[in-house]
Design goal:
Blueprint lengths: L2 H20 L14 E14 L2 E17 L5 E11 L13 E7 L4 E7 L8 H4 L3 H22 L15 E10 L7 E16 L2 E15 L6 E14 L4 E14 L10 E14 L1
Antiparallel strand pairs: 1-2, 1-11, 2-3, 3-4, 4-5, 6-7, 7-8, 8-9, 9-10, 10-11
């Protein structure tokens, strides 16, 4: 074997030894720092067909975040507000009255979610005509609104500490609940997202995403329902900024209202499109 051939083989072998790094492996870290401001545009579109009636509901909401010093090293505190809402969002409610806070680790672990504000509109003379039971039911229902939004506001997936290579995956499991025993409505959701690293290019990590969830409802309003969702999508993580740029999912839901008086036990189908887009201000 000539010296030239040996040199070529050495170069090739060295390149092969380091190629996993060059091929796009990456480690994910949130790089949130005090003083940062972020905005998230969340758009959704739901298409349903219940009892032969087709409905299409679209909405767009903007969340604004301010990052401050956290309780200890590796943590920050994020304060969020809902800046605006588009047509199809929660009607007459003023969501800008709500404030959300949470402590977030560089891994994306979220703790101590809290919120303040009341979105229940002034019922005026209508309130005088309501029974105490009806008033209590309405108050409980509106109190659930910030509960419903808090998980959407802090939607950031927790990421693994170890390095990911192309084809590696990690999963995010969540259990969320709203409403206490005896409240007008109780909701419990269990979900699992699986992120698979597809490519790393120019400082961006590209993922495919699969998700499954089950949501069950009940409460003093009477009746119960179960919704099963399965979907898939894509996500992009900016390695330099340390934040997701976008996450898009398309899902199909089967809603069973058999536990609601007067409703059919037949599953009702729903198509859902969700898109989160983050930008640093």
């Amino acid at each position: 074997m000539s010296k030239i051939t040996q040199a070529v083989l050495i170069v090739v072998s060295l390149f092969a030894a380091t190629s996993p790094v060059l091929a796009g492996g990456c480690t994910l870290h949130y790089k949130l720092a005090p003083g940062q401001k972020w905005a998230c545009s969340f758009a959704s579109k739901n298409e349903s067909n219940v009892m032969g009636q087709k409905n299409v509901n679209q909405s767009r909401i903007v969340y604004e975040y301010t990052v401050s010093k956290g309780p200890k090293q590796g943590w920050v505190t994020m304060t969020a507000r809902i800046k605006s809402k588009g047509s199809g969002s929660q009607g007459e409610m003023d969501l800008s009255k709500l404030r959300f806070t949470a402590d977030i680790h560089s891994s994306g672990e979220i703790r101590n979610i809290n919120y303040t504000g009341n979105v229940m509109p002034d019922m005026g003379e209508e309130a005088d005509q309501m029974s105490p039971q009806m008033k209590k039911m309405m108050e409980d229902s509106y109190k659930m609104i910030p509960e419903a939004y808090k998980n959407g506001v802090f939607w950031f997936p927790e990421v693994p500490e170890e390095k990911l290579e192309i084809g590696d995956e990690f999963d995010v499991q969540r259990k969320m609940g709203m409403g206490s025993s005896g409240s007008a409505m109780q909701v419990e959701t269990v979900s699992k997202q699986v992120f698979t690293l597809e490519d790393v290019s120019q400082g961006l990590a590209y993922f495919s995403v699969k998700e499954r969830s089950v949501t069950k409802t009940g409460g003093s309003m009477g009746g119960s329902s179960e919704t099963k969702i399965a979907g898939k999508g894509n996500a992009i993580f900016d390695l330099q900024q340390g934040m997701w740029l976008e996450l898009t999912e398309k899902s199909r839901a089967k809603v069973n209202l058999g536990g609601v008086p007067g409703m059919s036990t037949k599953d009702h189908n729903m198509n859902i499109i969700l898109k989160y887009e983050m930008v640093q201000k």
